[in-house]
From TrEMBL:
Locations listed in the record: Cell membrane
Coiled coil: 130-157
Keywords: Cell membrane, Coiled coil, Membrane, Transmembrane, Transmembrane helix
Name under which the protein is recorded: Multidrug efflux system protein MdtO
Length: 526
């Protein structure tokens, strides 16, 4: 918007006109913001209500996983883990700083955000029933196994019942019920961690990590990484081409082309093309709605109320699409924008379709210029971004494995960051079909990267458990994380020596080694 305003300065005859225009521009920007604030203040969903619903969903999912640790419930847990903590922590922050609820309740919600995510990680590490049976068959004392299984089953049912009761209390806005669990040692570190998480819901523990790096406004490699400079240069070139085009043609009504360059540009080529497609589809749908309204509806309008009803109907459809899945949400924004640009051309309804079509053509021109620029100048493949995220996730897994069992705050931070990297990488893989053919990886490579992400997503919760990890496992993870290319072939790692070595390992240690072995194999096959 700043760049577009700068292009208008040469057309302003007097400085006073520019000053007045700037003041009206501020009014134009602030007025709808204040309208949205007022609307949400009286009719919107409050942050604490949205937060309570999401916390209740977490606890219900954890309770179902404890009761039935099957693949369906595990997939539900992984889906909630992929959501991360950012939005939940922001809502808890809003509740606290705006004093939307009493201080004690705000602190309770903040604590529930931390420990509910911690609980999801812990229950995600639970083995499935099949894994339990396989591991129990390898043990020597079947009588002890049956006794341990009965104890674990009783603990799971008790924890599941408490999760259901707590979810109901949180959803209803009631205080969280106190956890009445035995402080005796549980049968495994996974069950101990689950018990500690549930107890911490009403008896908070300090989960502030003193070693956490401070958040910065810019990316850590904003100055050193040439990708950022190239991205800025590509976006500027695209905007400059659009500006020269509509200025040379003296066709100011297609100025939306330059705005499109800044709106649609994203980090990778696949992401940019995906957004361009959504922008084109939304633009065409919104413009079609607007043209149909101009032809069949606007000539019959008599007052401003009828015009408001027309705008409401069009924006309702756009808002419905915009509130959907993130992969299509931007199309809803574009539907609404194109519809408004077509229908509202001045201070009243108009049946002139010339300006409306020009604005739509400007959007399409901007899409074309961005596509050509981002596919020809330093194209960034999604697979490169995925590999970088895998590399960062491997570093996080190594740090997680090296932490002592009592460093729960640091472990939660590392696990949260790893889950965020894995979720972003998985979302990026979905966009590979939108890339040009020369940037797409082979189908086998895509399947291998997906398998690597799957193994890491299973390994992360297991490493999060408060157990002392084997030094050999930490070394193997560190070897993978320090490799210059996270998905390049790595040398053969030393494996545990036969059944004699495996017989002295716990279930968690066996699980860790199994997934590290798979990771090493997948990384070597690149």
């Amino acid at each position: 918007m700043i760049a577009f305003v700068m292009t208008l300065l040469s057309d302003i005859p007097l400085g006073e006109v520019a000053t007045r225009a700037l003041l009206y521009a501020w009014l134009m920007a602030v007025a709808p913001m204040m309208l949205i604030v007022g609307f949400n203040l009286f009719l919107g969903r409050t942050p604490q209500r949205v937060l309570r619903v999401s916390l209740s969903e977490r606890l219900l999912a954890a309770g179902d996983m404890l009761q039935r640790p099957d693949s369906a419930n595990r997939a539900r847990i992984h889906s909630l883990l992929k959501e991360g903590q950012t939005e939940h922590q922001q809502r808890a922050l809003f509740v606290r700083i705006f004093h939307l609820r009493p201080a004690a309740e705000a602190a309770e919600l903040d604590n529930a955000v931390i420990n509910s995510y911690r609980l999801l990680l812990a229950v995600s590490a639970l083995p499935t029933s099949i894994e339990n049976n396989d591991e129990n068959n390898n043990e020597n004392n079947n009588e002890n196994n049956d006794e341990n299984n009965n104890i674990v089953e009783a603990e799971r049912l008790a924890f599941s019942a408490y999760c259901a009761a707590t979810a109901q209390a949180i959803a209803a806005g009631n205080p969280i019920p106190a956890a009445e669990f035995s402080q005796e040692e549980s049968t495994g570190s996974d069950m101990r961690e689950i018990r500690d998480c549930l107890i911490a819901l009403t008896h908070p523990v300090n989960m502030k990590d003193p070693t956490a790096p401070k958040a910065t406004f810019f990316a850590a490699d904003a100055v050193t990484n040439p990708v950022h400079q190239r991205f800025a240069l590509k976006t500027t070139i695209a905007a400059f081409i659009c500006y020269l085009t509509y200025t040379a043609l003296d066709w100011q009504d297609i100025h939306t082309a330059m705005i499109t360059c800044y709106v649609a540009a994203l980090g990778t080529t696949g992401e940019t093309i995906h957004k361009l497609i959504l922008r084109i589809i939304g633009c065409l749908i919104g413009a079609a709605m607007g043209v149909l309204a101009i032809i069949f509806i606007i000539p019959h309008l008599n007052d401003v109320g009828e015009l408001m009803a027309l705008v409401f109907a069009g924006i309702l459809l756009a808002a419905w699409v915009s509130s959907g899945n993130e992969r299509i949400a931007y199309a809803g924004v574009q539907i609404g924008l194109a519809f408004l640009l077509t229908v509202l051309q001045g201070f009243g309804p108009s049946i002139d379709m010339g300006v409306a079509l020009d604005r739509v053509l400007g959007i399409l021109l901007g899409n074309l210029v961005v596509y050509v620029t981002f596919t020809l100048l330093w194209p960034v493949a999604i697979v490169d971004s995925v590999r970088q995220r895998i590399s960062r996730a491997l570093v996080g897994l190594t740090n997680l494995a090296a932490l002592p069992p009592d460093a729960r705050a640091s472990a939660l931070r590392e696990a949260t960051e790893v889950e965020a990297e894995l979720a972003s990488a998985q979302e990026e893989l979905v966009l590979i079909p939108f890339e040009p053919a020369q940037l797409r990886p082979a189908h086998e490579e895509r399947a291998r990267l997906k398998a690597i992400l799957t193994e890491m997503s299973v390994l992360c919760p297991v490493l999060f458990l408060p157990t002392e990890k084997k030094h050999g496992d930490v070394r193997r993870l560190r070897h993978l994380s320090v490799d210059s290319d996270a998905v390049s072939p790595s040398p053969e790692a030393k494996q545990p020596d036969g059944e004699s070595a495996r017989s002295h390992l716990s279930t968690i240690e066996l699980t860790i080694q199994r997934h590290i072995n798979r990771l090493e194999k997948l990384l070597r096959t690149g």
